[in-house]
Amino acid sequence: MVVLAISLSGSKNLACSRAIELTNISFCYPGASTPALTIADWHVNKGEHVFVQGASGSGKSTLLNLLTGTLVPDSGSIRLLGKEFSALAARHKDGFRARHIGVVFQQFNLIDYLSVKQNIATAAYFAGTLNQQTQRRATELLHKLELPANVLSRQAGSLSVGQQQRVAIARALINAPELLIVDEPTSALDANARDAFMRLLLEVADSSAVVFVSHDAGLATYFTRQQSMAELTAQSVQTVC
Amino acid sequence: MLNTIALESLKHRRTSVMLTVLSIVISVSLLVGVEFIRGQIKQSFTRTVSGVDLIVGAPTGQLNLLLYSVFRIGNATQSIKWEQVEKLAAQPLVKWVIPIALGDSHKGFRVVGTDNRYFEHYQYAAQQPLRFARGGQFTTAYSAVVGAEAARELGYQPGDNIVISHGLGNVSFHQHDGLPFTVSGILAPTGTPVDKAVHVTLQGIEAVHQPASTPSLKKPIVNSPPTAQDTEHGHEHKHEHEHEHEQNADHLDKATTATGNAPHPKRVTSASTSHAAPPPARPESVTATLVGLTSRAAALQVQYQINQRSEVPMLAILPGMALSQLWSLMGNLEKLLLGVSGLILVASLIGLVTMLLASMRERRHEIAVLRAMGAGPLTLLWLIQFEALLVSALACGVAVTLDGVLFSVFASSLSENFGLFLSGSILTLHTGVIVALVLLATWLCSFIPAVAAYRQALHAGLSNR
């Protein structure tokens, strides 16, 4: 099934305000004979909220890793926020990712032994934005996410699943990233919790381009644009592993 | 922030971390301890002998003579007669002699029988003379001069009376309490065995070994060279060795002439009035004699004369050569101890690496998260190395502190039982070098788990699935 829906969040000039541009991308895992992912052409505009849906093994995680620079395409170009991201040196990619990209994981992946404050501060530290304002920003974000300020001092591992979700969002947004990548964070939630989570996420990330990856087609309604992995990878790209 | 992450991560795995720390503490404290004791032994020995050109005693091994006469380690097997000391002092190349008689103790501190030449000629460290913190030299035959450490521990002041005991143990059943000595001076600290000695006059020590019931009236039953049993102290209980009272004055004059430092007759008289027996003018024998020469170049010549040509067999040794022999003997033991300590350290570091490697699996998702937040592989490599260094630094700190505490607690015991006189702080340059080397070794070893984290960071991607 292919689902494609695009809508704009805010008035943007699409031609010159692309958050993501993928061109002739091909990626093979070591030892594989066929590419794990090929994308001929795909883009996401700034501020756009895109839902990418696909079955397990369809290449969703590979796509996210390519977008964050932790995997490097064998060929093709990845431009992020107007910058040739795939051509950056590894060190610069790390810096770019820290400053411009927020990531929310499927299992939230908070560092259990750190406090909420430390989890959030870690993201600011790697982005080089850790300062005295960090705690204020964190408190504001937690307030928006309907978490009490006193949760800041609690160990992440001691939080409920719902609280961990929100802290994960706060951590991803502490640097006000232009691009937010979300990897199936609702898979373990019931319907009510899932709805609440989605509303909060898209509300606080309103100004960011969001790429939300999930196998759950029911979430598509929250997004202005929908993209299936099958369609995304259907266009042929000449490649050899 | 990386510090926080590293610290919190270690706290999170506190059980395995504490076991690893314990293992490194044991190895580092062994290394530091061995090195400290080695340094202290050398320093202590080197400090103790200064300005002494020869040590003369009864025939024995040169190490044995050096150890018991200067460092109060072990015991003499024989002694030398007083006449030999006088003859030695009369030699033209001999500038001074310091006779010493060992074998008694006072509350666990060794008693050294000697005369005032000891305080005039004995030097330690870089030819520093002995100084008095309070009081002064022997003034009567029953004077005592107490070393700094002994005075501090026993709370003695000039004017206090003390009783010496037969033998060397802490507890003696034979107290010479009929003839107490009066403290005439307290020596300033020297950092040598002198600090732990109670010095009394040769006359006084001779007197206390005469039976009170037969004060100086009998002729000595035995006037032969002291037996091995006697010479263990140089003046072992000589109940049979009683001098004629009449001879004392004559002997006193001769001793005064011979040494120039025998007790002042008036003072001796004064002391005699307050004690059961007047002191003999001179001892019958002494344990050893420290000798200063008019020229250091003459040392070999005088040594040869004593060793080869003296009528009574005696042994003269050069302290420096004896020390060299001691170092060479100890060298292999040192190497062995350091080698064993080093191997234990290697085992501990392997334990540290194993602990960190084992943690890599459970930290897969943590690494993925840190990567997602912008941590580069090199940052993660450094994070793991920093954790290893923290563990090692903590262990080194604990080990050095532990050694410091243990050595201060057992300093007295080491001194009394092994003659090892500890002085100074454990925070020496050598300790610093050992700690630096341990940290360097840790840093190098930590590359193994750190590179694993680096590779994991490169290939794991953002997801831990």
TrEMBL record, chain A:
It comes from the Bacteria. The keyword Cell membrane does not apply. One of its GO terms (cellular component) is plasma membrane. InterPro entries: AAA+_ATPase, ABC_transporter-like_ATP-bd, ABC_transporter-like_CS, ABC_transpr_LolD-like, P-loop_NTPase. GO terms for molecular function: ATP binding; ATP hydrolysis activity; transmembrane transporter activity. Residues 20-241 form the ABC transporter domain. It holds the Pfam family ABC_tran. Keywords: ATP-binding, Nucleotide-binding. The keyword Cytoplasm does not apply. SUPFAM superfamilies: P-loop containing nucleoside triphosphate hydrolases. This is ATP-binding cassette domain-containing protein. It comes from Salinimonas sediminis.
